[in-house]
Specification:
The structure is a homodimer. By secondary structure, chain A is α/β, with parallel strands linked by helices. Helices cover 43% and strands 21% of the residues of chain A. A 7-stranded parallel sheet of chain A has the order 10-9-11-8-7-12-13. The first copy, chain A, has a 4-stranded parallel sheet with strand order 5-4-3-6, sandwiched between helices. A 3-stranded antiparallel sheet of chain A has the order 1-2-16, with no helix packed on it. Chain A starts with a helix and ends with a strand. The interface between A and B is large, with 65 and 65 residues.
Chain lengths: 416, 416
């Protein structure tokens, strides 16, 4: 295993050098050729996917997992569309910024360059294979992909299409390598091959990400939790507050940018909470509140300390009545996972304070936390969301897979 | 020790929140007050520094180390000047970039924010205490500083001035904490307190940095080596080539941005190498070359494989004659520490290729590697140089001690 993984690493490093120099046209050609291969081999993809589904059924996987695993023709079409969209994005590699003359006569600027080799570890959805490969390729990186064992046959089939597409475009096939073993030791190797891999991106459940963060010796771009807060301030517009609080919780439940805790100023709670309770009841959202919340909403369950620390990913919401913005920010400081927080207010000064003082990867005013997303932010696509502070923070798109080096242009200058 | 360090960590985290919100005027006032304190207490600084010098002499430290340790009045003046310069730099905190409307109606941008708590570990020069404190303070971060044991009394004296300055400016004194024990276990704690410290910056010799990188569980901003290359291309202007090759090697020997290996195209080597050899001889630089180099330069020592891997930090230079830019970049690829490389050429296409294809923190055309420096690049000051790819690359100034969070401004938008 060690030998196999080191070989993938060495090949990725070589391929990374080649793809870092490839021009945009060639990278876009590869993306379009991969799309073409998926189209041509849709029957093959379907047949291989059926193998995975059969194994999963035999192993008694639940309906939700089976659904995630299935490569319907709509999902294949979405992968093809995704490839075309990434081909249409501007190429970040080689962008030069802030080039300016210094008193010595040299010109100094920064050039955007690929990171090198990206290792991506993900769970059952096979479409991640295409999304990840497309973003790495476009940003000039080689990648080593490790999908879930449940989608082994599907991922290998997709990998074959990627390889073919790269070859037609004249790029080394090792630019995208999909690990072709389900041996878990491969992951342990991947996340400790510092000589070959520049960054690890884990995508999946919290336990996967925790394990990888703990064991990796390579930098990891990740988020563990999305305990997102909405704070409805005393000066909030009631209509906006209700619309956003409903949307942030109920638009989708199982996503990291859903609101998990609602904070509300005590001055406005008697007006807003009953309105909200009605809306949540319509959608069968279970409410767990502080004492004051429970006094304003019938059928509210008393929240425990654990509730404030929980990412439900379900139709459950914790609610706390707070004195003011300071109490709200203190709560956020204590319990937030630094993913996304939003204030609802018409107060200019409080909005400015919230933006400056809340230390999360996305901080919003009068908008639903559900907007914390690479597509909504205009990144074109995202490989994940980072709640870490270094390098990339928030949704990570093509730029997050690159770095900046300094460039200096001179006419023979020497240091005095 | 663990208890003491955790207490520093907790205090730093609290102070970090306060300093992240402080406005520029207050931070600049603190910097100016610290300068004032250094001025007022120059006799005290001198007396404490004498204690360190006496211990060092008793321990038989060499003259170079004693020199580094000494706080001459010129050096105190330089620290004061440094504080004033940092006060004069633009405040990076709160800068908003790329704020633009999205189709949904939300406005998305990025705000520059402090990292939080920075741990800095450094060796004998006591002036680093001031430089590091000033940069962290201005960038809105709290810091925990650990100086070398040889400069213990000097650092504590400087720390007293910093504390006083912070207090006068109305900022928590825990914004800058200097560890007041020489117990080495303190470093082990500092670099593994993930709950309190966001990034570690080690400054000093290679062995210190290697040890810290290996043992830290927190992200480290660092460079290990500066094996910098100059490549003199066949189309180089001979005068520029000679001036830069001499400057890059001989301007200062003990610095990380000095050239350690000269690569030269074989077409131009017979013209340039004898001219260079003469200049180097004047400065008593020992030359170690490949066979071709030795055939062109008398008194050249045959270079070994080890020479290409060595950062001499001394009047020694390794020289290799190469076929062309591809051979030069292949050598750089193999041996460079990814710090700084420069090409000397008048050829437009080769200059563009070198800039794009060489993967180092600074890549130059027709300029001396000695320019790879925060002051020369216009950063105002630098806390160090990073040869890592993630987060900060090249000289690290105020911006390198900050990160970007996303901000979203809306009027009640919800996700459709």
């Amino acid at each position: 295993m060690k030998e196999y993984m080191r070989q993938l690493g060495e090949q990725a490093k070589q391929a990374g050098r080649a793809i870092s120099k490839a021009d945009s046209a060639q990278k876009n050609e590869a993306l379009m050729e991969i799309a073409e291969q998926l189209e041509l081999h849709s029957e093959f993809l379907n047949a291989e996917n059926q193998k995975d589904l059969q194994v999963a059924k035999d192993n008694g996987l639940d309906a939700a997992s089976l659904d995630r695993l299935e490569l319907t023709s709509a999902r294949v079409a979405a992968m093809i569309e995704g490839l075309k969209q990434v081909a249409g994005l501007p190429d970040p590699v080689g962008e030069i910024s802030d080039l300016s003359y210094r008193p010595s006569g040299i010109q100094v600027g920064q050039m955007r360059v690929p990171l090198g080799v990206i290792g991506i570890i993900y769970e059952s959805r096979p479409n991640v294979t295409i999304d990840a490969a497309a973003l790495c390729l476009k940003s000039g990186n080689a990648c080593i992909l490790r999908g879930g064992s449940e989608s082994f046959y599907s991922n290998q089939a997709i990998a074959a299409c990627i390889t073919k597409g790269l070859e037609i475009a004249g790029l080394p096939k090792e630019v995208v390598q999909v690990i072709d073993t389900t041996d878990r030791a491969a992951v342990g190797e991947l996340i400790t091959m510092n000589d070959y891999v520049d960054v690890i991106v884990p995508r999946g459940g919290k336990s996967l990400i925790e394990r990888i963060s703990k064991e990796a010796t390579i930098a990891v771009i990740k988020h563990l939790d999305g305990i997102c807060h909405v704070y409805i301030d005393g000066k909030a517009d009631v209509d906006k507050a209700v619309a956003i609080a409903v949307n942030a919780k109920t638009h989708r439940y199982g996503v990291c940018n859903a609101m998990e805790t609602l904070l509300i100023a005590e001055s406005i709670a008697p007006t807003v909470l009953p309105l909200l309770a009605e809306k949540y009841q319509e959608k069968a959202v279970e409410l767990r509140g502080c004492l004051k919340t429970c006094s304003l909403i019938p059928d509210c369950i008393k929240a425990s300390e654990e509730d404030w620390q929980t990412e439900y990913l379900a139709p459950i919401l914790s609610i706390k009545v707070v004195a003011d913005i300071d109490a709200a920010m203190a709560h956020i400081n204590n319990y937030s996972s630094a993913h996304t927080e939003s204030i609802i207010t018409e107060d200019y000064t409080l909005a400015r304070r919230f933006l400056r003082e809340v230390d999360s990867s996305s901080v919003m005013v009068n908008a639903s936390t559900r907007f914390a997303d690479g597509f909504e932010y205009g990144l074109g696509a995202e490989i994940g969301i980072s709640t870490d502070k270094l390098h990339a923070r928030g949704p990570v798109g093509l730029h997050g897979l690159t770095t900046l080096k300094y460039i200096v242009l001179g006419d023979g200058q020497i240091r005095q």
